[in-house]
Amino acid sequence: MNPPRYDGTVHPDEWIKQIRTFCYFKQITEEQEIVKFCKSMIHSTININNNNDNNDNNNNNNNEIEEINTLDSLSNALKSHITFQILKDTCKRKLQVLKFAPEIHGGDTAKFISYFNMKCFDAEINDLEEQKKLLFHSFSDDFFRKEFNKQIHNVNSKEVLFKLFNNIVNEYSKLIKYGNFVSLKHITTGKYLTTDDKRYLTGSRGQIVFSTDALPEANAIWKINYPFGSQPKANNEIVSYGDTISLQNKLGKMLWAYPNYKSPTSGHVEVSCYSMNQYNNWMIEPNISNISTKKNSNEEKRYLKSEDKIVIVNESKEKVMILHSHNIKFTLDNSLYQEVFCHDNRIHLKDEWCIELVEH
């Protein structure tokens, strides 16, 4: 363990703490001995003897160095030197240009908070309101800024501030965006929306869609795409409730429902995988009451998040069709498959699916 030299690039109190640790390790416990050792470790370009010189008396240097005989007086002397003011100003400027990136964009929240905390300490920024502003301006994403503004008023300590920050990062990591891959689990049966290369023997004769209890593999993973007939959305744009999307299986086919084709067992509307067309468009709703409730134009957007319970509505021009599954099965090539279909009946809790983020 080598003792660090003081060169003006570390907070004096932190440096003294490190020197004290070294001294205790070497069994140097007397404060004056520690102070003497500290002085020997100050870089020769930093002359703390002249910090308190008066313009009319330049002959007191020898007396002033002798006055620095406690760790507190040493700390004060180092803080009086111009290098400390430069350090504080430098750290404040670094905080002013600091930008946060969450883990999904290659960042590290723990390292960011540690760096932010240390720079506030080095710059001696202890005012909570100033810390709030600096942290707020580190966000470049509107989601972070909106959530931070909504919740910041009840923050009364730095620990609570960091807890809020971490909570917002956790919420951000759950956001569903265009280009993300998700799985859809039917809540009532606990099974995942899945497709297969096999084809229905009736109806559209397209690729079958069913529910399975296996953990999602490629045939049960769906990409959130822009809807048919609209301008493509940029990847990483957040999906909001009420948005119309299309769902593309990781194997390449689109989730599709055409009202003229009947499902193999229950006789409702068949759901299959097909190429891109107007019957690929699905609207995401948060719960059954919002299907029939007109949204207030002034209402704030609600973002779609992983593990949300949703209702999935096919936006067919002919009629409203709700994606559904149940425990009834159909047989194909001597295998049983849990039926998935759309219906236009009264919406109920069995229409809910849980959306789970699989891959950004």
Automatic annotation (TrEMBL):
Keywords assigned: Repeat, Signal
Residue ranges of domain MIR in the record: 173-227
Domain of life: Eukaryota
InterPro entries: MIR_dom_sf, MIR_motif
Name assigned to this protein: MIR domain-containing protein
Biological source species: Rhizophagus irregularis
SUPFAM superfamilies cross-referenced by the UniProt entry: MIR domain
PANTHER family per UniProt: GH21273P, STROMAL CELL-DERIVED FACTOR 2-LIKE PROTEIN
